[in-house]
Amino acid sequence: MARFALRRRLLPLPLLVVVVAAVAAPVLAERVNRSASAGLFWSTAKEEADLVRMADPQEDPTAQAVNEQDGLDGGFSSLDGMLQWAIGHSDPEKLKERAQDVQRMSASDLKKRQMELKELMEKLKMPSDAQLMQIAIDDLKNSSLSLEDRHRALHELLILVEPIDNANDLPKIGGLAVVIRELDHPDPDVRKLSAWVLGKASQNNPLIQRQVLELGALAKLMMMVKSEFVEEAIKAFYAVSALIRNNLAGQQLFYAQAGDLMLQDILSNSSIDIRLRRKAVFLVGDLAERQLEALNEDELPFFRNEIFLKAVVDLLASTDLDLQEKALTAVKNLLHLRSTQALIFKEFCGLDAALERMRQQLQDLMAEEFQRDYATDVESLRREVELIYQWKLGKVMQVPT
Length: 401
Known about the structure:
Blueprint: H1 2-10, H2 13-39, H3 61-70, H4 79-88, H5 92-103, H6 107-123, H7 129-141, H8 147-160, H9 164-169, H10 175-181, H11 188-202, H12 206-214, H13 217-224, H14 230-244, H15 248-256, H16 259-268, H17 274-293, H18 306-314, H19 321-336, H20 342-348, H21 351-366, H22 372-392
Helix pairs in contact: 1-5, 2-5, 2-6, 7-8, 8-11, 11-14, 13-14, 14-17, 16-18, 17-19, 19-22, 21-22
C-alpha cells in the first residue's frame, strides 16, 4: 500500500478511480453476487439498484464471515470509503501495473471504466431501516400489488420491526394502520403475516401496544384466533398475547371482549391444535403471575370463574408433557391469587385427584432412563403445587416460596 500511496499522488483523481475500479471491480462484483445469493430482500416499489438489502448475518454464516473479514456492514457510504477498501484488498503490484495501463487509455475507455464503477457503487448502496419500512408500507398501500409481493413486504416488516427503535418508527410513517388493515385481507397468509408483524412490534413495547389497541386491532385479532387456518390462529394469538402482557388497559379490554371465554374454549377443546392450547395455558399462567406482582390492582374477574379454573386443571391429565407442565405452572400461579378459593379447586376442579394421577404418571416416567430427568423436574414442580394447595386449604401454616 505504501508504494501505491506514492503512485496516487502522481495520478489525477479520475485516473485513480479507474485504476481502483479495474482492480477492485471483480472483487466487488463477486461480493455483490455473493450477497444476492445469500438472501437479499427486494421491494417492488422502486428500481432494484436502490433497494438492495443484506440478509441478517446471523442467519447467513457465509455473509457474516465476509462482513467480519472485510470489516464492513455491507455498503460504502462514500467513494473515498470504497477506494480505501479496494486499496486495502488489492495487490500493490497489480495496482501499479493497472496505473500504467490506465495512463495509456483513451478518453472513451476511461469514461467506460468510470461508468462501471458508478454501477457498482449503486449496487452497494444500502437504504436505512426507516427507508426500507417506508418502502414496504408503500407497497402494502398499492392495491394492485401481487400477492407474492405483498407477502414479501410483510416478511420484510417482520424482520425490520424487531428492534424496538424500528418498531417505534412504524406509527410515524402510518405503518400500524396499514398493517392492521391487512388483517381483513382475503388471503390467510397475508392475515397471518400481518398479525405476526403486530405481535412482534408490540412485544414488551407499551407505546406500540397502546397505539395498536387504540386502532381497534384487538377485536380483529381475537376473531382471527378462531380461524380454521391453524397458522393464522396461532399468529393471531401470539399478537393478542403481546398486546395484553404487562398492559393493564389491554387486559381489561381483553376481558371486556370475552377473552376469558376465548381462552376457556381453547383450553377445553382437545381438537384444537396443541400449539395453540400450549400458548393459551402459558398466557393464563403469565397473566396470573403478573397479577401477583401488581398488588394494588384488582385481579381479573375470570380468575374467580370456576369453569375457567376447571379448564386449566383438566389439562393436568393431558398426554402432552409440555402442555401438562405449562398447566401445572398456571395452576401454581392461580393458587397464589387472593381471589381464587381453595374449595373450588377441591370440589369443583378436582385438583386432589388430578395431582395424584400426575404423581403416578411421573413415577412411571422416572423409571424410563430417557425421561427420568424431565420427569424428576416436573415432579418437583408438582410437589410445590401440592404444598401451595394444602396451604390454600389451611392444612399447612406456611406457603412455599
